[in-house]
Amino acid sequence: MTPVTPVTPEEMRDRLRPFRDKALARGIPAEDVERWMDTARPCATLGTGGDGPVVGRFGGPLMLPVGTPHPYYPFVATIDLAALPADATDLPLPPDGRLLLFAYPEDFGDLADMGNVVYVPAGTAVEERDKEGWAWFENDDDYQEVFAQFPQDTLRATVDVSLPYHYWVEIPEEPRWVPLPGHPRSEELAEVWAETYDDIASSGRLRLGGYADQEAVDTDPVGRAMTCALREAEAGRREPVSDDLADWVLLAEWDPWIDGLEGATVHWSIQRADLAARRFDRAFTTVFRNP
Known about the structure:
ten-stranded antiparallel beta sheet, 14 strands, Hypothetical protein YwqG fold, 7 helices, about 20% helix
């Protein structure tokens, strides 16, 4: 498939034509299909192949600003924001500098923050650090075996279009789970998107922006990050955060494909206001794993 760069809403809708055709053929009313397509977002798929521009790499040297404390979690990737294609996402990302992503791809079931994000502005003095400087793994062979499988490769970008993979929202009373507001056919539409995705978007292990996906998804994974961050704030372990999901966005998503942690997906979520303010330290990292 030849990559197409969706810049305008009209171009994104044109690229979604296979989705629209299949949804209509399934008998989903046109107005429901059109409303679902109105939710489309641009996103950047970062893969290790293709002919897109080089925008970073998995692994490689860990270059942190001088004096910055070593992040708690293992180093995943560096993204050169200046190299990203224009309009690659609808996120208010900085126009330049580098974004460093850290995470451990396991869900320990305690709703803990499982990663870090560090923004390095252009021109910042940096120093190379030990990529295995996270002491909590130091004497654990299992963790070392996992980290040894972290990818090490150049990342190239393709600008894609994204639709929701989730289709339910949780409510406090019965039936507890209902279709997304304004989208009574959301479950069917999400299923059509899953079936037509390969005909529309490219594949890659890291994505910026768009909608969050995982092996089993019915509610928005970004909502889980918000819930976890709210609990952390209530416990006094982080600054207060918004309880309105509309204020949160997916920053990045990683599919590790690591032996022993099959079915794991890492999501870095952040409040849009924090993103605009360059408060990447307030991102929250969640991991879904379906062993």
